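Many introductory courses stop at the sequence. We go one step further.
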Amino acid sequence: MCFNFFIFFFINDRCFQRPTLAILFLTGTCNSNNCQLPQCRCVGTDIPGGLDLAEVPQMVLVTFDDYVTRANFHFYDDLFPRALSDVVKNPNGCPATATFFVSGTHTNMTMVKTLADRGHEIASHSHTHGSPGTWSRQDWDREIQGMRQNLAHACQLPAQKVCGMRAPFLELGGDDQFSVLQDRGFLYDSSMFGGSITEDSSAPPLWPFTLHYPPSTSQTVCDQSRCPGRSYPQIWEVPLIRQYALDGRSCAMTDGCPFAGDDVSKDDVKRYLRKNFDRHYNRNRAPFMISLHATWFTNVPQSYQGLQEFLQEVSSRSDVWQVTLTQMLDWVRHPVPLSRVGEIPSWQC
């Protein structure tokens, strides 16, 4: 597919962005000549800004999907406690943060507000958590924008601060979905997954990218059906990169990788997380996402303590930062060396 036209648009105040007039010329395939930061980035494994590996902060993105209820809130409350003396901290002393993709019908909005008040990012995961394969464009708008409005109201936030979304079941909606996201001024989607199915691949993980140029399945980033077919210059994609279980089997989400046997220990969980973390850390420091549902903690009883100890372990490193997806994109759009990450406004306390 070849694009050969001018696009004029305004980038609205979406998650710390000030209004800017952008003029883009899209032609042929995405490359460094026609796609440059901060507005545009091609699908790729190259480090933003051309920085050396040692200059790049390793960003850890902890995400949770689905409902926030009394049955699972205690996990979040323990991982991200109210008392600052008990929280996992980033190198600058600020609390580590996570991103919650929240669905609506069973969610306790008071608890969601508590998470938002503690500095975590709240994003839309649809209102009903139905099957997107049957949704029309109008359904996408009602599910994604409607949930955004509910979350913004409950958390007493401007709607544009709820600027990310993830599709239920990671089931894409093609141009119906992405045209809604662009028209409604969302900053990012995090529904695509990709990467090698086999663990022995030497390819480094992908960094987030924009949808100026629709990703192809050959780029191993949109392995699902109903990928976007048109250009969406305002939207960033934060893909889920396949992870590998201790036995080498792959999964799209962290809690999707199987563990052999019923006697899984917390050390097994830590080895699994560390194995996947090291692949990002040692190759190109692309953001390492720990993508979860709270049900993992009951389905794999030792997973909670394993996760907790792993996060404490990596937080002791001076080059590891646990941030939200929006905080991560603030760095990707304006990459600075590790010694200057304290200058990023959203990374400060």
